[in-house]
Structure formats: structure tokens, C-alpha cells
Amino acid sequence: MASSSSAPAKRLSQVVSHMASPSTSGSADVFHSTPYAPPDAIFALTAGYQQDKFDKKVNLGVGAYRDNEGKPFVLPVVRKAKQILASDDSIDHEYLPIAGLPSFVSATSKLIFGADSRAIKEDRVVTIQTISGTGANHYGGAFLQRFYEPWLGKSKEEKKIYVSNPTWANHKAIFNSVGLTPVDYPYYDSSTIGLALSSFLDFLRTAPAQSVILLHACAHNPTGVDPTRDEWKEIAKIFKEKGHFAFFDCAYQGFASGDLDNDAWAVRHFVSESIPLLVCQSYAKNAGLYGERIGALNIVASHAGDVEGGAARIKSQLLILQRQEISNPPTFGARIVSLILNDEKLFAEWKEDIETMAHRIIAMRERLHALLVDKYKTPAPGPNGWDHVVKQIGMFTFTGLNPTQCKAMVEKGHIYMTANGRISMAGINDKNVEWVAECIDKAIRGQL
Ligand SMILES: Cc1ncc(COP(=O)(O)O)c(C=O)c1O
């Protein structure tokens, strides 16, 4: 009888608390039906890590670079640029132009397309400063939603943006929020822990002409699996034949190989093939400016100037988007990046800093690989041994661990990683690599 007597009591207490809430909160309950949204998986992982008291705990969830001491890394060139800014009395705190800091805007497009890019020389590139890569993705989607010719008059369901399966967790949320429908395309083959090239190419061939397809320019997140140059050429060929639109997301230029030009190769190849495209840029990872929120959106137009399809018309609409969303972009990150991109000496120093980060990650891939293969002789999750650990590119490795093994890594090994098996190589260093390898070995053997 306990449950029947407690049910009315519970109901009564609900009624009392409901009646009491306006007076205790001081306002009417006008958000009563607001559902509780799930917390962001990556940020929740970090919160778990911070609360963990275990001395060997490791955070391999978050996609931010750490130095060999496991500390956030302020690039030496960024320190220098900050000092230059701090001692420059001519800098004021006025609003920037709506498109952003002009010296940043012109330099950022040259960084991605190359200073000798035909599209830039022909005045066909439209660039605006954005709130990092997230803002660029958001505007890219919002602009296409309004103006992509093949979509005019179509419903949200028909405005499909194809994204790799898997992709950066935020892509789908961003595109949904601007009235597009994200749809997966095959990209990753879990049986080989590599690129599902033939399914990807088949998809490109069979997708409706002029489809909008998101491509990670380099260092694919979350898999670390990038096409080779020859594979990119095959991909580009089909884009051209089918008239597909390439929505490039480039959040890791320089971070993948340590070389800025090398990491821009796919984008530049698509431009040289006259494939319609846009590129989102972020300086979060390659300049360590995570919190400054500095990035750019570049759209390559078919024509320069104020003609149909012309760059000037596209720019006028991007300015409207920016104005209504953030009015004008923030100054600090733009000034730092502008200094670095426009000063030969600082630019050379930046390249060295990028190499330092990229090469530390590559060295950790080699250490982890050697430990798993030589020391632990750990059975591999795929047919090619542990080669994927060294072959994958950029910040992330898709380990091939299954969700049960990932859970054991977190709960028993205190190694914080996402359930899809992704680890951030940037979180591995000389001090913790042995522990990470030991736990992977035990997790794979079911002994963790
Ligand atoms: C593929 C990809 N795109 C975009 C972003 C956006 O990053 P941010 O907005 O910090 O520049 C990220 C960050 O992790 C990413 O991995």
C-alpha cells in the first residue's frame, strides 16, 4: 500500500511546488515546457576528467593541442604578436567593418587559396571574418540556404547537405539550425579503419547533380582519415562531371602535415578545376587561438563584380548575414592573425610553431604504435595491424576500439575518450603514452 499512499502525496507536493514557484522565483513560469537538453558530449567528458582524482588520468576527448607537459600551448609567435599589439598606441577599440579587419580578410584568403590563386587575381573570392570555424560553417550553410540556385523554391527537406559518416559532431546541428537537412554519405570503413573510397565515389556518382557536399579539407575529424592526392583527384573529377558544390571545412590547415600549403592542396586543386565551392577557415588549432574565435568564410564566385553570380553581389548578402547576427566581428584575434600573416618574419616563425605542434603529434603516433606493436603485441582491431595509428592525419586517431572497450578506458583506465573510439593525439605526451598504451592493450584483451 506504500506506493498508492505515496502517489497522492507526490502529486500534492508537485502541486504545492508548482503553486509556490512563481512566488519563489519572482516571475510567472513562462518556460514551463522547456525540455532539458543533453549536455555536449565532449564538454561533459572534460568535466568528468576534471573531477577525477586519479593521478594517471588522461584527457583524450577534447580537440585542443597540449604540449609535452599536457599544458595548453600559447604559440611563441602569438606571444610576440600580443606584445606588439600591447605596445601599439595607435590601436583603438572602434567597431571593425562588417566584413572584418581588412588586412586579415585579404591575407586569410591568400593563405588558403595561395597568393598566386587565379580566383583571387580575378577578384572572384569573397571573404568575411567569422566567429572561428563554427561561425564560418554557420554562414556557409545560411548563405546556401538562401541563395544556392538549385535550391530556390525548395523545402528544408529538399535542401540536403551531404556530410561524411562520421563527421564533426556540430556539423549536423549547425546545418539543421539554418534550415538545411544534413544527410550522411559513406566515408569511413570500420573494417579497414580507413577510407571507404569506392562507396564514397559511388555515392558521388549517384547523388543528384549539383548536390552540396561537405568535405574536410585536411585532418578529417573525427577519423583522421584523409584521401590521398590521387584519391582527391578522382573525387574532384566526379564533382566536376556532376556539378556538385564543394563545402570545404578547413579547421586544421598546417596542423595535418605541418605544412600550410600541403594541407591546402585539395582546396586548391578543386579551385583549379573550377568546381563551385566555399571554404570555412579556423585559426583555433593552427594558431592556438581557440578562445579568440577567429576564422573566415570564403566563397569563390563564377564572376567578379556586380553581375549575375558576381562576387560583389555575394559579398553584399554576406554583409547582411553578418550584420543581423553579430553586427561586426571581434578585433583581437583578427589583429593577431593579421600581424602574423602579413609580416614575413612572424609568418616564418608561425610556420615553425605549427611544425612543432604537428611533429609532436606525429612523434606520439609513432611512440604509441611502437608500444602497441613491439612492447605489448596487442591484437589489432583491423586487418592492417596498428598502422592506422601512424597513417591517420592530424589531431585525432580513430583507434578502432569498440564502445565497451572505450567505456573501460574511461571507467577503469581514467582515460577520457569518446565512445566512438576517437582519441585526441594532442593529449598524449612522453609521460602518459605508456599508460595509454597499457590501457588500450588491456581494453582490447578484455582485461581492463
Ligand atoms: C571539422 C571542424 N570544423 C570546425 C570546427 C570549428 O572549430 P572552431 O569554431 O573552434 O574554429 C572544428 C573544431 O573542432 C572542427 O573539428
Automatic annotation (TrEMBL):
Start and end residues of each Aminotransferase class I/classII large domain: 56-438
Pfam families (alphabetical): Aminotran_1_2
Annotated keywords: Aminotransferase, Pyridoxal phosphate, Transferase
Catalytic activity reported: L-aspartate + 2-oxoglutarate = oxaloacetate + L-glutamate
Region (Disordered): 1-20
InterPro entries with a match to the protein in the record: Aminotransferase_I/II_large, Asp_trans, NHTrfase_class1_PyrdxlP-BS, PyrdxlP-dep_Trfase, PyrdxlP-dep_Trfase_major, PyrdxlP-dep_Trfase_small
Family: Belongs to the class-I pyridoxal-phosphate-dependent aminotransferase family.
Other remarks in the entry: In eukaryotes there are cytoplasmic, mitochondrial and chloroplastic isozymes.
Subunit structure comment from the entry: Homodimer.
Protein's name according to its UniProt entry: Aspartate aminotransferase
Originating species: Rhodotorula toruloides (strain NP11) (Yeast)
